Amino acid sequence: MRTVFVFPTGERAETVASLDRHLPEQRDPWTLDGNLYIDTDDEQTGYLFSDWDPKDVTLLEAAIGHHPTWAVQIDISGRIDGTAEVHQMVALLLEHGGVATDDYTTHPWTLPEILSGALIDGLRFFDFRGYPELNRAHGRS
What we know:
The chain has five helices and five strands, in the order βαββαβαβαα. By secondary structure, it is of the alpha+beta class. The protein has one domain (2-137). The protein has a five-stranded antiparallel sheet with strand order 2-3-4-1-5, sandwiched between helices. A hairpin with a 3-residue loop joins β2 and β3 (36-42).
């Protein structure tokens, strides 16, 4: 399972309402075609940041200008590529601003960076194909 965290601007309730509108009659988690599993997470009652490197949290805080207390977590099934589905969901969630993170870089990605296919440290957003290749090129396993 691959994971993307999305930190939309606005209130959590607004994001939940948007997910309810776009993925009706489901929750805990919402699913997109049975391949993306979408839920909210927070520090108070959940596990948000529990396994994050503190430097990555600092990068995220700098990108959005404050310490976020909640996020949308998207788990992507390994049965599918998932790139188009992740881009679709992230575009919806970041429509009014915010950033997303993935398993492959420490960079907090903006929607324009994601949509343009920007390269950051040799990778694009959710670049699970390029990640192993880049690590081999740098002598990492």
